[in-house]
Write the structure tokens for this entry.
Amino acid sequence: MINDIEKIILDKETIERRVEELAQKITNDFKDKFPVIICILRGSVIFFSDLIKRIDTHVEIDFFSLSSYGNNSNSSGVVKIRKDIDTNIENRHVIVVEDIVESGLTLKYIFEYLEKHNPASLSICTLLNKPEVHQTDLKINYVGFNIENKFVVGYGLDYAERYRNLPYIGILKKEIYS
Ligand code: IMP
Ligand code: MG
């Protein structure tokens, strides 16, 4: 797998430190609010599990999955729900945990869908963010790292369902996906 990586941009320790910081912020912001933390499958599963382990207040967890049409290295913004949440989030504080925001269209869809269930509040936490290519004005409350607009894999992020199990985040060699 390592031979397919052009450059490691975030190593294990760097990710760990940042996840700890985000968890502390979330702990402070949601102390005694018993938030529902929603993992967006499948890309955020590793980030999500590392994050919730470090949150030091009661939380409820749930899972949500979308399929998006379009090619693998680019989100088309056209989505379908594959797995809905099971929790009633009305009047609950909700935190959506995503792996990466590129155009922001995926999260915008999720945000608008969840908002219809009248949560008390709705926050977004993403591990990675590509601010150069945003196409929405969606407010992201917690960002792990702003990165440049390169296709990255590892720590949950995939290319064609591979590389999710890499313990770090790296730029995939162009020849792999072009
Ligand atoms: P958006 O809707 O354009 O914000 O795209 C978000 C989704 O596209 C993410 O949830 C990922 O599944 C996928 N994605 C975007 N950029 C990357 C990347 O660099 N590596 C892996 N997946 C990505
Ligand atoms: Mg995703």
